Amino acid sequence: MADRTRVGVLISGRGSNLKALLDAQASADCPYEIALVVSNVEDAPGLDFARALGIATFAKAHKGMKRAEFDALVDAELRAHNIEAVALAGYMRLLSPGFVEGWAGRMINIHPSLLPLYKGLDTHQRAIEAGDAKHGCSVHLVTAELDDGPIIAQAEVPILPGDTPDTLAARVLVEEHRLYPLALAELVRTL
Ligand code: GRF
After folding, report:
1. How is the chain split into domains, by residue range?
2. Domain 5-190: top CATH class
3. Ligand 1 pocket check for 14: Cβ under 6 Å
4. Which residues contact 133 (CB under 8 A, 6 or more apart)?
5. Would the pLDDT of 108 be above 70?
6. DSSP E strands: which ranges in the chain?
7. 177 C-alpha to center of ligand 1: Å?
8. pTM score of the predicted model
9. What is the atom index within ligand 1 of the atom nearest the CA of 12?
């Protein structure tokens, strides 16, 4: 499997999407290999999914560092591990323009809404409050604008009577875990 595309995943928290990406790479025809997991939160629970598989991790708190300075450190780690594509998976930190530019066309994000609706936070609550009939998740190429950039995959779920942000988030998350490995595989096949 030497020709699998080496992917770096950036996380900040529980890492359930990272886990979905890792589970999918167990399949023989998966075109990517997660070779590094980076976190800006030193004790992010999701790091354990990588460690359990012996995958390299880089965890460093960004506190006290300028954004571009921190991103340059992350970039150096990615390059040192010969990473060819980046997947953001719950990475709760804005990226500096230079970092984004350096990975243009090779970096994707998963966002819990049907973009261009509901960029930013609290997407499930906002969709319920708006009275929407459906909600979902989107995978997009990362550009300098938050939750912007060309959409490469989307999945929808219904919003049901009585839904709370938590019940809706859980329904969306099932789709995130299905969609993200497919979208990452699709991206790396084009590189
Ligand atoms: C997901 O809902 C993802 O769409 C959003 O942040 C959440 C991360 O969850 N960007 P996890 O850390 O992957 O479990």
Report:
1. 5-190
2. alpha beta
3. yes
4. 158, 159
5. yes
6. 5-11, 32-39, 56-59, 85-88, 107-111, 134-141, 151-158
7. 10
8. 0.96
9. 12
